[in-house]
Prior knowledge:
The strands form two sheets. Strands 1, 2, 3, 7, 8 and 9 form a six-stranded parallel beta sheet that branches. The chain has a three-stranded parallel beta sheet with strand order 4-5-6, with helices on both faces. Helices cover 40% and strands 19% of the residues. It contains eight helices and nine strands. By secondary structure, it is of the alpha/beta class. It has a single domain, classed as Glycoside hydrolase/deacetylase (TIM Barrel, Alpha-Beta Barrel). The two termini are 19 Å apart. The model has no long low-confidence stretch (mean pLDDT 92). Bound molecules: zinc ion (ZN). Zinc ion binds at residues 11-12, 62, 66, 102.
Amino acid sequence: MAKLIVTTSWDDGSILDLKLAQMLTKYGLKGTFYIPKSPKNITPLRKTDIAALAAEHEIGAHTVNHPHLAQIPPAEAKTEIEDSKIYLEEILGKKIKMFSYPFGEYNEAVKTITKDCGFIGARTVKPAQPGDIPDPYEFGITVFASNGRFHEMVKTSPELDWEPKAQKLFDGALQNGGMWHIWGHSWDTDNHKEWDKLERVLKYIANKPGVQYATNGETIGILSGNR
Ligand SMILES: [Zn+2]
């Protein structure tokens, strides 16, 4: 069987990320938590919580105010991206390597800013090509841990619940190797009362012989090395 890397990512910096992180740790999984400096409409993680999360998982930047980056002036986009990186680096005392685009929205100018700010990669919400990273600044996902309709890729197969979809895609990845990447939001899991479902999926993908469990940043490093 081909070598498989499993990674997970969780956006927006809700206090509920602590519950999610505990679940990941319980199953030996690694996560990257993308945290905006000033999240709206959620109870945010405190600085001490961010530091606690960073002990077991990776912290990535997600702008200051969660704007639509492709729709604002580049200078404003740069401030949003750069300031969120500095904010997290001051809390953690180490470099922040990963970024995720709010709403998955970016363009070439935004990508370039992200690169120039010193990130090694940036996560989108596009389906990843298995076993291949054509561009680390368009790092994709395998499955969205939600039946929500607020992202384009989910609209393509709304008839299939995300739990069997995740399992099916994972079974395929075990055979074919490459990368398997689940992405979601703890606030969304909570809104839809899907904690049990999420735990079943995490259990399903955990502790598989030969599978490497990694953060987003580690995954980009491993896949880039393989190129
Ligand atoms: Zn977000």
